[in-house]
Amino acid sequence: MPICLACGRKTILRAESFPGYVQGYTYDIYECPGCTLSTVSPCVEREEVYGWIYGWPTKVPGYSRYVQLADRVARSQQPDQEISRFDAVYEFVIRTIRKERPDGGRIAEIGSGLGSLTFSLRSAGYEAIGFDLSVPAVESASRNFGPFFRCDRIEDSISPGDVDIFVCTEVIEHVRDPLDLLLTIKGLMSQNSAILLTTPDKSAFPEGAVWETELPPIHLWWFTRDALEALASRAGLNISFVDVSRYFRPQFVRSRQESLVRLPTFDACGKLLQRDEPARARITNLIQHSPMLSPARWARRAVQRARGARPYSICAVLRLGEPETGCR
Ligand SMILES: [Zn+2]
């Protein structure tokens, strides 16, 4: 029975032999009765899976939208506005950085993927660099957007005080040790720097949901605000949350096609089992962003909100807290 990484309590087994992202691999799901953090056992990253994903980025469900995004921002006159319209987490990042550093600043994006956000920030006048451990992702980002991407760990590449804002969108749920990630970033922060962090929100799903997020080992953690607050406290960081529902745009309403695939996506040799066909993905994307369907999306979003639906991601700002608040 693992101990909760965030608050230290004994976790409870919620499901045994849950299917994984790779066929033939199963996981036990644990939940903390205190802070509600969910995790999996074995909690192990498999880096080769990201090689498989970025080998087929236009076809892997959930990833084809990032290929379309890279294409859109590369062609846009105003990439920061384009990316803000694409997803609430990007709008949170762009708005917060503009507010925190209206005159420019040094940004490090951790987990930059295909590079769209780092590129959009650079286009808006920021000195942004993207870090990703996936070689094909860094190659693709550099090819499309220029030499602003590094296949390095941030601690090997930058020094304390070098960066004003660290951006970490939808990354923390992928790593084996989120506390270690926060402590690493903390070691590079200055008193005025901040971390902008987003992660899927377990509270957006009905109580009792076991694992309504990407199958392990893609996602290894599933957070609520309480869980993230407990983790930040353990890292000695102050956290504040931003409610992105107030600037929800109609296209942020997810369609059924985007709902999660509950079956393994790859077989054990890296063969793709579930395909997001490019033509279908493009049509979905077109429908989601079509101005003609805007009223229907607004109406659907209004109904969802009236029923208590929450944004799909937690958006948080973390800053240096008191040094004695319990680093490990
Ligand atoms: Zn806990």
Question: Can you give keywords for this protein?
Answer:
328 residues; alpha/beta; 7-stranded mixed sheet; 4-stranded antiparallel sheet; 11 helices; 34% helix; binds zinc ion
Report the mean per-residue pLDDT as an integer.
89
Top-tier CATH class: Alpha Beta
Unreliable segments of 5+ consecutive residues = 255-259
Strand order of the largest sheet: 6-5-4-7-8-11-10
Count of all domains = 1
CATH architecture descriptor name: 3-Layer(aba) Sandwich
Bound molecules: zinc ion
Structure, explained:
The chain has 328 residues and is of the alpha/beta class. It has one domain (47-320): Rossmann fold, CATH 3.40.50. Helix content is 34%, strand content 18%. The protein contains eleven helices and eleven strands. The protein has helices at 47-55, 64-75, 79-86, 88-100, 116-123, 135-145, 154-157, 178-186, 225-235, 278-289, 294-306, and strands at 12-19, 26-31, 38-41, 106-110, 127-131, 149-150, 165-169, 194-200, 221-222, 237-242, 313-320. The strands form two sheets. The protein has a seven-stranded mixed sheet with strand order 6-5-4-7-8-11-10, sandwiched between helices. Helix 2 (64-75) runs antiparallel to helix 3 (79-86), helix 3 packs across helix 4 (88-100) and helix 8 packs across helix 9. The two termini are 21 Å apart. Mean pLDDT is 89; it is low at 255-259. Bound molecules: zinc ion. Zinc ion (ZN) binds at residues 4, 6-7, 9, 32, 34-35, 37, 230.
Explain the layout of strands and helices.
Layout lengths: L11 E8 L6 E6 L6 E4 L5 H9 L8 H12 L3 H8 L1 H13 L5 E5 L5 H8 L3 E5 L3 H11 L3 E2 L3 H4 L7 E5 L8 H9 L7 E7 L20 E2 L2 H11 L1 E6 L35 H12 L4 H13 L6 E8 L8
Parallel strand pairs: 4-5, 4-7, 5-6, 7-8
Antiparallel strand pairs: 1-2, 2-3, 3-9, 8-11, 10-11
Bound molecules: zinc ion.
